[in-house]
Specification:
Layout (H helix, E strand, L loop, with lengths): L10 H19 L5 H11 L7 H10 L6 H13 L3 E4 L4 E4 L10 E5 L5 E4 L3 H12 L9 E5 L10
Parallel strand pairs: 3-5
Antiparallel strand pairs: 1-2, 3-4
């Protein structure tokens, strides 16, 4: 299982592939990936760090794509609602989804050194939580698992 966001990769290709997949998925599902929504996704894909709504708004404003907070929040709402991005609760910020389309319950690894965020798909911890909840008669509708620590670069392993 790969921790998307920490592994060595061709990042330009990563961004181009993710944008192409998002555009294809939006077309297939009849979703409108407007220029602002696409640009916000592109900004989230620039690196694997979470970004706050006001950071994104500042970039949109500098590019002439909108100056009011609702511009950024509406785009982020669309992206998270449709699985193109995730909200990182701990940071009150957003990252692009790296696990691909479809409903999933990811786990986020947040590096306290460089603030990169890695995403892992469904984990044993998440499955265990759902099983324990089901045994208690509780139906989990949404779960967010966030772990904070050091990425391989910040931990000094370079792996």
């Amino acid at each position: 299982m790969s921790a998307h966001g920490f592994e060595r990769h061709d990042h330009k290709r990563c961004v181009a592939t993710a944008l192409a997949e998002a555009e294809a998925r939006a077309t297939a599902e009849g979703l409108r990936l407007t220029p602002v929504r696409r640009r916000v996704l592109e900004l989230l894909l620039e690196d694997h760090r979470a970004q706050g709504a006001y950071d994104i708004l500042a970039r949109l404003q500098a590019e002439g794509l909108g100056a009011q907070p609702p511009v950024a929040y509406r785009a982020l709402d669309f992206l998270t609602k449709n699985g193109f991005a995730h909200r990182i609760e701990r940071l009150n910020a957003y990252v692009a989804c790296t696990e691909g389309a479809g409903e999933h319950a990811p786990m986020f690894m947040i590096c306290k050194g460089c603030e990169r965020v890695g995403e892992i798909g469904e984990t044993a911890a998440g499955a265990g939580l759902k099983a324990e909840a089901a045994a208690a008669g509780f139906a989990v509708e949404r779960q967010v698992i966030e772990a904070e620590g050091l990425c391989p670069d910040c931990a000094g392993t370079g792996a």
